[in-house]
Each structure stands twice: as C-alpha cells, then as structure tokens.
Amino acid sequence: QVQLVESGGGLVQTGGSLRLSCTASGYTFSSYTMGWFRQALGKEREFVAAISLSGDGTYYTDSVKGRFTISRDNAKNTVFLQMNSLKPEDTAVYSCAARRRFISTTYAEYGYWGQGTQVTVSS
C-alpha cells in the first residue's frame, strides 16, 4: 500500500534551520508531483511548496520564498524541504503529499498523504 513517511521535524530557535524528508513507497514515485503542506494549531492547512515530477519545476507560497527549498531524489523515492531562517510563524505540523501530473497548491487535489512531522520554532 502507499506510504509517505516524514522525518526531520523538531524544535529550533528563530533563525535556525531544519531539513524535512518524506520517503514514499507503494507507488511509482517519479510519476507524482510532490507537495508540502502545513497546519498550525487552530488554523487551516496551507500549501508550502511543490515540485514537479522530474524536479525541474518548483512552486512556493510567498511567505517561504527565499527561505525554503524543495527538492527530490527519485532514485530514493524521497522529497525534501530545506527550511532556513525559520520564524515562529513557521511552527506547524508539516505533511508531504503526492498527486498525479501537475503541481497544485490545493490540498484536496493530492491523493496520498503522510502523517506529518511537528516543527516548532521558538522565539
């Protein structure tokens, strides 16, 4: 069955960095666009970043541009989210997701989801 497993979350101070990983199994990883979403306590889930099938196309929400970088290694069935210059407002549960074909910023268009990893940025 399809599994997406995130890792790399944790507690970091403002200005620090974390690298999230999401390893997939149970489907043809290279045939799926991958995305990262986050949900802060009491808030709706929001799009963070997405990457195309081959990795040559990326898209970010405005609040993370220049600070976060999404990448993928199709040989290892893994997508990454490098997060630099973290801010307290980045605190959330981060989840990776997969969808066929094109990049989307809409979470309902992603069919496969991981369980998420907590990122906490202290001020």
Would you mind describing this structure in some detail?
The protein has strands at 3-7, 10-13, 18-25, 32-39, 46-51, 58-60, 68-73, 78-83, 92-100, 112-113, 117-122. Strand 4 and strand 5 (46-51) form a beta hairpin. By secondary structure, the chain is an all-beta fold. Strands 2, 4, 5, 6, 9, 10 and 11 form a seven-stranded mixed beta sheet that branches. The mean pLDDT is 97. It is globular. It contains no helices and eleven strands.
> Unreliable segments (pLDDT under 50, ≥5 consecutive)?
none
Distance between the termini: 40 Å
Q: What's the mean pLDDT score?
A: 97
Counted by DSSP, the helix tally is 0
Rg computed from alpha carbons, rounded to a whole number of angstroms? 13 Å
Question: Which strand-content bin applies to the residues?
Answer: over 45%
Structural key phrases:
123 residues; mainly beta; seven-stranded mixed beta sheet; four-stranded antiparallel beta sheet; globular
Write the layout of secondary structure elements.
Layout lengths: L2 E5 L2 E4 L4 E8 L6 E8 L6 E6 L6 E3 L7 E6 L4 E6 L8 E9 L11 E2 L3 E6 L1
Parallel strand pairs: 2-11
Antiparallel strand pairs: 1-3, 3-8, 4-5, 4-9, 5-6, 7-8, 9-10, 9-11
